């Protein structure tokens, strides 16, 4: 099938099709775009990034086991897809249009954005103001995910590394490798046959720079700690043997136990594995501030100082802080949740008299997470109030919400994971394809949870079974060659696994 | 063999070895470091970048046929190598030390640096001032290459793209893909079934942005034009079919003919191939200035305006200008060439009386290229003048110059190519290994020249034979799996060739 251009329409073919506009290209939006039948719908993806990231392997790319592009799927490689790169800035539910600010001219190495102002526009302001334009829809799927939660803690936004997008992985990889290189300059030596000058970094400086602090004991934080351990002890140990004695990896979490989604036995196995590898796990520790270290260590080497409540005024030094604590609603969702709109009187309920006082609607917001509430069919829920009728809760026609930004009214406990997002997307796409969206409610089926622990060990837990050790690791690797990947990447990922195993990880700092 | 750390010395083993300090990690420096016998010498590479780039495939990475890291070889993967990342800033030939400014803390995605001031420090000033330290040597090999020649033309340094380092290739790849994305936003359409707003970019704007201007008709410029043509017509054509009509690729050169190293017949074959592909070649055109376009096209989309002497005041628009015109001496070489030094009287000539007026030396500089002159054994040549003796030309003990920064006194016609650099490096390393540096002079053996022309065609010329068309292309690809690559990359490069052929080039903008 011939690939087609952005919004271009073949008049004989597409003008009769309904246009489904999808906001987001993550697990929810991309899976929906893939599954939706191009013969029945004109599909238009609006997303600030031009690709889908296979996030479970992000930590592997951040340590050089895999090459970055092997976990990316460009949206435009989907045959017949329409794509507009930009931030969805607002939605007019009355005229059925999405306002978009283009960002294709920005720095394309996208990274996790954290809003500087809770209800403002996306935090990392684009270098140039993009063009603003409107895209109309017949059906709209809001799948634009969530932002990293920083709890407003000082310095996190400015100084911490995140691990949610491919640009994050690249920056983190460069930073870790650069820290080792910075600590490797000629050491003071008892050998006086050469007149090398004395070093600028003391052993204490190196200890500060080679402390890797991970905040958040969920699967992302734990897997990154494990992969980082492998990188350092498999690869960097042979290149910088003198620096190993300065290395420390610490995982901080506020909860009394990490990996809350695993049962006690598996979580304990994980902690025992970490203990043997020398990775420290500090539960019930509350991070209060991150700031640059004083003097040349902070200014020239980017060292950080972390204030932890339990340690009082004794700050901890680190060369890098990886932040992975949870999610919050993104600015578009916050804006939509607070916004009042008036629909044409016939749209909400055709039985209502048209000459009445216009009813004011508002999308339902989940007070705990800030997400948008849907009914069991994944349709956006609205509260409509009119002077005479009080408030009614109905669904908004042709508007769906899936993934991290959605909360199902009768099942608010679903976690914000790739699994939930992709199952919702597949469910909705199939229903739309069949034209029976209001016939079958969404049901989550837990396929189990997996986490890599380093040294070829993993844990896996589902309702049916539990696995740990290298069998779980084999399962972990196998599971990642799923249908969410293109054939291209299904070929390349195992090639890189073999190449990294044979020759070591990619350590070139680029 | 166990890998060893930077300058660390195993006292039983290394203290007796001579230390060979190598400035640079390009074709000359890296090949020398690879070939020099670690059992006989302590090898220390000083280079601002931590890897060797296999430059003949740089254009392939710039269009996504190959992944960037498949053409990088980290210096630290050489067993037993010593490495200091930094700029060699000065050399004291008397005390035999190199002054280094560290740069491991800088942005590691290195790019071509062009000095802003002819004799100043490297142009792109590091974000932080690096640490300064001295490294002593027993033998020194200067192999720090050359800079891109801009002829002082206004705007080249600020607005042109270069193609000499891996960071250049990445920026160029992102820029080209971004230009297509920027031109792809919804077009004005006769279909009014959707209320999309009108576009901001006119057809003329798109024509300006999708003009790819390549300055310099040497192999780099020609190959990039060919690879860019393949990217656009093999891959982007299916994704952005409506944009093809706006695309133009133009190669500008001041000379009456491009590819001067090929004979008339092959150069004509190249031009005929380009003509069929729609690539324009404008010889005898002199670029005089590059500036940003006016208004939103320049500010928001980065469009450029090029002034060409032959066109008078009519400027040409372009979305990107690729600059590949030649080389000039880099700042260290310029500094060394102008510098006076005094050696211990015994060093230069043991027969000279010690109590004499000290003789002032100066390295010989090639007036045409600004490079350092060597004798036929690749030893740096010096002019020494003393009051009574006049000027003598001798060689400087233990200092060698190879690669783009070297000019051999009795063979000044050698081109500045990877072939010359790597042959010089291998020659010198083998002579040092054998301890007979002054026994055999360096002789260049021409292995032939190859250039890719797009559409699976290439040309190849050597003293023995000439090839053109797809046979030359097969030869071109085969020749690139040379011994200069690690086994890792010898595996990965063909994998990517196959993957790109099967599934298209990597088009994710990252």
UniProtKB/TrEMBL annotation, chains A, B:
InterPro entries membership: FAD/NAD-bd_sf, FAD/NAD-binding_dom, NDH-2, NDH2-like_C
Keyword set, alphabetical order: FAD, Flavoprotein, NAD, Oxidoreductase
SUPFAM superfamilies (UniProt xref): FAD/NAD(P)-binding domain
Protein name: Pyridine nucleotide-disulfide oxidoreductase-domain-containing protein
Signal peptide as annotated in the record: none
Record-annotated External alternative NADH-ubiquinone oxidoreductase-like C-terminal domain positions: 448-505
GO MF terms held by the record: NADH dehydrogenase activity
Annotated ranges, domain FAD/NAD(P)-binding: 19-337
Keyword Ubl conjugation (UniProt): no
CC terms in the record's Gene Ontology section: mitochondrion
Similarity comment text for this entry: Belongs to the NADH dehydrogenase family.
Pfam families associated with the record: NDH2_C, Pyr_redox_2
Stretches the record annotates as Disordered: 104-125
């Amino acid at each position: 099938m011939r690939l087609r251009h952005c919004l271009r329409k073949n008049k004989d073919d597409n003008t009769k099709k309904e246009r489904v506009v999808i906001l987001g290209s993550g697990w929810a939006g991309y899976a929906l775009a893939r599954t939706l039948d191009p013969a029945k719908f004109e599909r238009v993806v609006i997303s600030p990034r031009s690709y889908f990231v296979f996030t479970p392997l992000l930590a592997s790319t951040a340590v050089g086991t895999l090459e970055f592009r092997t976990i990316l799927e460009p949206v435009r490689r989907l045959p017949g897809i329409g794509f507009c790169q930009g931030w969805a800035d607002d939605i007019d539910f009355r005229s059925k249009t999405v306002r978009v600010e283009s960002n294709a001219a920005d720095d394309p190495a996208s990274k996790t954005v954290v809003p500087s102002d809770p209800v403002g526009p996306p935090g990392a302001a684009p270098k140039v103001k993009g063009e603003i334009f409107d895209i109309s829809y017949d059906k709209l799927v809001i799948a634009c995910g969530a932002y990293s939660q920083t709890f407003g803690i000082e310095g996190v936004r400015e100084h911490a590394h995140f691990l949610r997008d491919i640009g994050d992985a690249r920056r983190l990889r460069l930073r870790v490798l650069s820290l080792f290189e910075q600590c490797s300059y000629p050491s003071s030596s008892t050998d006086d046959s050469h007149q090398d000058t004395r070093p600028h970094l003391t052993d204490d400086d190196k200890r500060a720079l080679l402390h890797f602090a991970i905040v958040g004991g969920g699967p992302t934080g734990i897997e990154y700690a494990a992969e980082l351990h492998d990188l350092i002890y498999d690869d960097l140990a042979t290149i910088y043997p003198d620096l190993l004695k300065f290395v420390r990896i610490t995982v901080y979490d506020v909860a009394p136990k990490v990996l809350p989604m695993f049962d006690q036995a598996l979580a304990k196995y994980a902690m025992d594995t970490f203990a043997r590898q020398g990775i420290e796990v500090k539960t019930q520790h509350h991070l209060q501030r991150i700031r640059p270290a004083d003097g040349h260590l902070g200014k020239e080497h980017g060292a950080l100082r972390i204030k932890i409540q339990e340690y009082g005024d004794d700050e901890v030094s680190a060369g890098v802080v990886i932040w992975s604590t949870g999610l919050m609603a993104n600015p578009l969702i916050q804006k939509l949740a607070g916004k009042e709109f008036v629909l044409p009187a016939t749209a909400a309920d055709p039985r209502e008299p048209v000459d009445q006082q216009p009813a004011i609607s508002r999308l339902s917001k989940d007070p705990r997470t800030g997400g948008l509430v849907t009914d069991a069919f994944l349709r956006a829920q609205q509260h409509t109030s009119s002077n005479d009728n009080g408030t009614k809760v109905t669904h908004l026609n042709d508007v769906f919400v899936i993934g991290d930004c959605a909360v199902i009214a009768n099942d608010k406990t679903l976690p914000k994971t790739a699994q939930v997002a992709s199952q919702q997307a597949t469910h909705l796409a199939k229903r739309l394809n069949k034209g029976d969206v209001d016939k079958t409610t969404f049901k989550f089926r837990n396929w189990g949870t997996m986490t890599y622990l380093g040294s070829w060990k993993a844990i896996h837990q589902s309702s049916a079974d539990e696995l740990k050790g290298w069998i779980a690791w084999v399962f972990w690797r196998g599971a990642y060659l799923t249908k969410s990947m293109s054939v291209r990447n299904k070929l390349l990922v195992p090639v890189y696994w073999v190449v990294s195993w044979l020759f070591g990880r990619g350590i070139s700092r680029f």
